[in-house]
Prior knowledge:
This protein has 266 residues and is α/β, with parallel strands linked by helices. 36% of the residues lie in helices and 18% in strands. The strands form 2 sheets. It has an 8-stranded parallel β-sheet with strand order 1-2-3-4-5-6-7-8. The chain is globular and about 45 Å long. The protein binds zinc ion.
Amino acid sequence: MNLYDAHNHLQDDRFAGRQGELMAACEKTGVVRMVVNGACESDWPQVLALARRSEIILPSFGYHPWHVAERTPDWIQRLESFLDQVPSAVGEIGLDRWKPNLPYESQEEIFLAQLRLASQRNLPASIHCLQTWGRLHDLLRDHPRPARGLVLHSFGGPKEMIPAFTKLGAYFSFPGYFLHERKQRQRETFRRVPPHRLLLETDAPDQLLPGDRNRFPLADADGRPLNHPANLSAVYEGLAEFLGEKVESLAAQVEENFQRLFGGAR
Ligand SMILES: [Zn+2]
């Protein structure tokens, strides 16, 4: 079975230089491709270095809404220069009205500038959205979007909006975190996702799975738990179980979806 991680942050400093070991563990469990998302200018070089090291990595460059305040005056030119260097995707970009004390002003402008780049180059875009689904929908509807599509990563929006987002080219990515008992609403939402728009992700090192599904326990230097990217197989199994499907058929469908969206990213 070939497994595809639609969204993680393998470059994260919390992994403390153990990326080689993590990638080897991933490959042993069947991971053949992972989209590694940069979040700000300071981590783009690390994402690029990982991509040069292993061909399972599809690098993705973007400004995450949590980091937009760190941007330099020429951030957009720098972003373009990273996209020029290697076949890549755009992300993680997005909008966030959930995080306390995070200013919203300027988020839309930064998001739209990056969406424009993705659309001009027809690169898949990975989108983070918390508590602003209606606005995200309207912005996507009213602006050019990448023709190949985009990912709503860790989709936690209302199930009623799935058809409208599908029409705009969206794929919906399921994180292992939604396997926690208390995330029932988010899990149920995924019953409504059209099978040809379904993806899975770890979001490692974040979004830890429930304890009994956490096959690769890992911690940072201070002992705080981290999500190991090789937990992807447990995400596949957990979602297949929930949907009442065979994990092999789920994996075959997700492989097709991943290839269609990310396959020929250039
Ligand atoms: Zn992320």
